[in-house]
Specification:
Helix content: 40-55%
Protein name: Maleylacetoacetate isomerase
Family: Belongs to the GST superfamily. Zeta family.
Organism: Maricaulis maris (strain MCS10)
InterPro entries: Glutathione-S-Trfase_C-like (IPR010987), Glutathione-S-Trfase_C_sf (IPR036282), Glutathione_S-Trfase (IPR040079), Glutathione_S-Trfase_N (IPR004045), GST_Zeta (IPR005955), GST_Zeta_C (IPR034330), GST_Zeta_N (IPR034333), Thioredoxin-like_sf (IPR036249)
Low-confidence stretches: none
Radius of gyration: 17 Å
Shape: globular
Strand content: 5-15%
Structural class: alpha+beta
CATH class of the largest domain: Mainly Alpha
Number of strands: 4
Strand order of the largest sheet: 2-1-3-4
Number of helices: 9
GO molecular function, one term: maleylacetoacetate isomerase activity
Largest sheet: 4 strands, mixed
Length: about 220
């Protein structure tokens, strides 16, 4: 069986999948789609992903789209270690935290949205940065409040081991720092991020450690 991740080194969604595959101990190849050069808009890539987005995960000839769906598939295909708590309420809580990032923060700072803000809407680079910071700050402020209020039994958002919420959190904080935000504003999130960053699965997934870094 072969597994290939099509992505871009600085894509948050591809970053999530690298973390997930690493946590499961799944070997995979990588194929870069250079977002900076616009390869995602070319005919070859659109034939694979008609939205012109990354990542795509190919496994034994099947091509899977959209990182939330792929994360579920990874967890179902390789059940251990699991990404979700056993308790239904805890599972819902973790899914909710992940959704704040995946549904409410990430889509608004996606490359195509930022280009629209800067170009089509005439806001330029400064307006684009302000837009990205605004929605990251708003979402992470809310997530920090929820995490601080929730009962937790370990260093990770997932408890004693990293789980789904951590898989979403780490790329988002990486992106927040890249856009000039100070992660110390979210001490609970920063602590969970630090616990994750101590693990090889997260270290190996870092954007700068990818073959296409700086491409």
């Amino acid at each position: 069986m072969t597994t290939t991740l099509f992505g871009y080194w600085r894509s948050s969604a591809a970053y999530r999948l690298r973390i997930a595959l690493n946590l499961k101990g799944v070997a995979y190849d990588q194929v870069a789609v250079n977002l900076k050069e616009g390869e995602q808009s070319g005919a070859d890539w659109l034939a694979i992903q008609p939205q012109g987005l990354v990542p795509v995960l190919e496994h034994d000839g099947e091509r899977l789209l959209q990182s939330p769906a792929i994360l579920e598939w990874i967890d179902e295909t390789w059940p251990e270690p699991g990404f979700l708590p056993r308790d239904p309420v805890e599972r819902c809580r973790v899914r909710g935290w992940a959704s704040i990032i995946g549904c409410d923060i990430h889509p608004l700072q996606n490359l195509r949205v930022l280009k629209t803000v800067a170009g089509d809407l005439g806001q330029g680079p400064d307006g684009m940065k302000a837009w990205a910071q605004r929605w990251m700050r708003s979402g992470l402020d809310a997530l920090e409040t929820l995490v601080e209020a929730a009962p937790r039994t370990g260093a990770f958002l997932g408890g004693q081991a990293p789980g789904l919420a951590d898989i979403y959190l780490v790329p988002q904080l990486y992106n927040a720092r890249r856009w000039g935000l100070d992660a110390t504003a979210w001490p609970a999130l920063e602590a969970a991020d630090a616990a994750c960053q101590a693990l090889p699965a997260f270290q190996d997934a870092l954007p700068e450690n990818q073959p296409d870094a700086d491409a």
